Amino acid sequence: MISDSDLAIFAINPAAGIDQDTIDQWQALSDYQLPRLVVVNELEGSDADFEDAIMLANRVFDQLVTPYLVLHSETGSPIALISLSDLQILDYSTNPPTVSVGEHEHEEMVAEFREEYLEDIAGAGEGAFAAGLLFPAIPIVVSNGIGIDIVKSYIDQLQ
């Protein structure tokens, strides 16, 4: 039952798109201002990527925010996330993941995304996610744990 729910998590595979039933479910939850989180999975071995999934979701859902972007290895595999709030890099190629300060090239690479994210966060205000007014999209890769800890941190905000 929707009124008994604290959170809805929508999983998107960028290569598969978003079906009408999922879009309808998202819209139905808007009436309840239920917090919603989007996880973008299946990021390995696909031509589609996180940014593609976000562009699609922004068209069919509400406007999403992307607190993290994916960084890839030399072979193109997702191995790290860069935080748009503080430009720290979470490297999931180590266990546990290591945190480091992003380099200048990273800062340049994400500058536009970061500016948009910071404006969205400032405009939404404190507690906007828990109030069902701000919808984060998090990249996840189950095989190496990318983003799982971040999803858990959003869930913890509701407790």
What report would you give on this structure?
The longest helix is centred in the C-terminal third of the chain and has 21 residues, at 104-124. By secondary structure, the chain is α/β, with parallel strands linked by helices. The protein is globular and about 45 Å long. The chain has helices spanning 20-30, 50-60, 104-124, 148-156, and strands spanning 8-12, 36-40, 64-65, 68-72, 78-83, 88-91, 98-101, 135-139.
Strand order of the largest sheet: 1-2-8-3
Q: What is the overall shape? A: globular
What's the number of helices? 4
CATH class descriptor name: Alpha Beta
Report the sheet with the most strands, covering strand number, pairing sense and barrel closure. 4 strands, parallel
Mean pLDDT: 91
Portion in helices = 25-40%
Query: What's the Cα radius of gyration?
Result: 15 Å
CATH topology-level name? Rossmann fold
> How widely separated are the two ends?
19 Å
Second-tier CATH architecture: 3-Layer(aba) Sandwich
Structural class call reads: alpha/beta
